[in-house]
């Protein structure tokens, strides 16, 4: 498994802690798999799933003891993105801060570059 330089996704400590907690609760897994799909009114949406293995064509980012796996084809849309985990009242979710996103839809589910 090769680890990429800082030319990809950056994790906050809160995001890394949440990834580790979810993997502990699940009982297995390598990290979080982040991707992009065409969707929504703005064109792209983020996807997240557990990463159980690194596959050919994947880039791996490790910070604060947590691992994020991304298909290399998505890197142009994700370079420089910070992944945070935020709690606001009863709501809690991962939040993407993507410098490549030029606009977001009103619901916040999709973005355009």
TrEMBL record:
Segments crossing the lipid bilayer: none
Gene3D superfamilies from the UniProt entry: HesB-like domain
Any single GO CC term annotated in Swiss-Prot or TrEMBL for this entry: cytosol
GO BP annotations, alphabetical order: iron-sulfur cluster assembly
Domain Core stretches: 9-109
GO molecular function: 2 iron, 2 sulfur cluster binding
Annotated Pfam families: Fe-S_biosyn (PF01521)
Annotated family: Belongs to the HesB/IscA family.
Protein name: Iron-sulfur cluster assembly protein
The organism of origin for this protein: Sinimarinibacterium flocculans
């Amino acid at each position: 498994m090769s680890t990429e330089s800082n030319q990809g996704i950056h994790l906050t400590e809160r995001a890394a802690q949440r990834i580790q907690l979810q993997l502990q609760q699940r009982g297995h897994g390598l990290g979080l798999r982040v991707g992009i799909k065409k969707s929504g009114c703005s064109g792209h949406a983020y996807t997240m799933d557990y990463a159980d293995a690194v596959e050919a064509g994947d880039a791996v980012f490790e910070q604060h003891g947590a691992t994020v796996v991304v298909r290399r084809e998505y890197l142009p849309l994700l370079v420089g993105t910070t992944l945070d985990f935020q709690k606001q009242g009863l709501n809690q979710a991962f939040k993407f801060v993507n410098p490549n996103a030029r606009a977001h839809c009103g619901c916040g589910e999709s973005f355009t570059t």
